Amino acid sequence: MIRSYIALGSNLNLPKQQVLRAIKTIAATPGCELFAQSHLYGSVAVGPGTQDNYVNAVIAIDTTLSATSLLNTLQAIETQHQRERTVRWAARTLDLDLLLYGNANIHTPELTVPHPRMFDRDFVLRPLADIAPKALLRHYLRDKLGDHAELDYSDNENLWVLESDDKAITS
Question: Active site includes 95?
């Protein structure tokens, strides 16, 4: 089994439910076992035009699937959720990103692991910090943080922990 981390995000069609359903679907996928789930976070959309806020999370799974098979599975789940790939960073029903696949470094036309933009996104790093070992985060963030810097992921105007009845997510 290979420990893998997957980021989830949605800002269309009941995003909180989209994310929670996707987690259940991934956990029920043959060859995948849910190991950990972050808190749900709200985040301000980054992308073209005015968009609703996102719901974000990260899960850790243990999998027997190859990285390519896992990517294909995640894309199939996105399709089940009516994901449309028309404009980069546009609003979406579901976005699933394979962040880490064990300690593999993968660079193919279809897949790059570690995810190339994960280290620049608080809406990925903060949920990842909920569930990933600090040593793992430090390994990947050493160049940005230095050897002894502390990770600080406090709520801010662009990212916050969602409460079960959070009204900030309206769609």
Answer: yes
Catalytic choice (3, 21, 83, 138): 83
Q: From its phi and psi, is residue 49 left (phi > 0), alpha (psi between -120 and 50) or beta?
A: left
CA-to-CA distance for 126 and 41, rounded, in angstroms? 9
- Catalytic residue flag (residue 92): yes
109-152: pLDDT as tens digits: 999 988 878 877 888 888 998 998 877 777 666 655 555 555 65
The secondary structure of 103-163 as a DSSP string is T--EE-SS-EES-TTGGG-HHHHHHHHHHS-HHHHHHHHHHHH-SSPPP----BTTEEEPP
**Contact present, 95 and 117 (Cβ < 8 Å):** no
Known catalytic residue: 138? no
Task: Please tell me what DSSP assigns to residue 52.
Answer: P
> Whole-prediction pTM value?
0.86
Give the pairing type, strands 112-113 and 106-107: antiparallel
**HSE-up of residue 101 (Cα within 13 Å, Cβ side):** 21
